[in-house]
Design goal:
Layout: H1 3-11, H2 17-34, H3 41-58, H4 67-75, H5 79-96, H6 99-106, H7 119-132
Helix pairs in contact: 3-4, 3-5, 3-7, 4-5
């Protein structure tokens, strides 16, 4: 393992164990409402991306640009596979989810069956939801 890869792996976990559990519990409810199945690898990658984003924002770091790389390092896969899996999870979830559930989770949104959020939009929305709602 190269030195910079080891440093990248160490940067992944900014949240304490208690914060991580609370955030995971909130995400589980949101994912269920949105039809995101836990048996899809993209859902697990999405959860980790949101947790990384929450941790960075709580520590005052700017919005990260290397979320897929950091998730890939944590799971031992590639950046492209992470992004593709998250896109697939969103596609599957949006096809299963009722519009009322999307409105309930995010309030009034422009997302419909034909207009899905991008991976980065969903990560940002979920991060905000975890950080700013009790």
């Amino acid at each position: 393992m190269r030195a910079h890869e080891k440093n990248d792996r160490e940067k992944v976990d900014f949240l304490s164990e208690a914060q991580r559990k609370r955030a995971c519990f909130k995400l589980l409810g949101i994912f269920n409402a949105l039809g995101l199945s836990s048996n899809l690898s993209g859902t697990n990658y999405l959860r980790e991306a949101v947790l990384i984003s929450v941790g960075e924002r709580e520590n005052g770091s700017p919005v990260m640009k290397d979320v897929y790389l950091r998730v890939a390092l944590k799971f031992g896969t590639t950046q492209d596979k992470v992004e593709r899996a998250i896109r697939n999870a969103i596609k599957v979830g949006m096809s299963r989810c009722r519009k009322e559930n999307i409105d309930y989770v995010f309030g009034r949104t422009i997302f419909t069956e034909r207009i899905k959020p991008t991976s980065s939009e969903l990560i940002a929305l979920l991060t905000d939801k975890i950080l700013y709602e009790n």
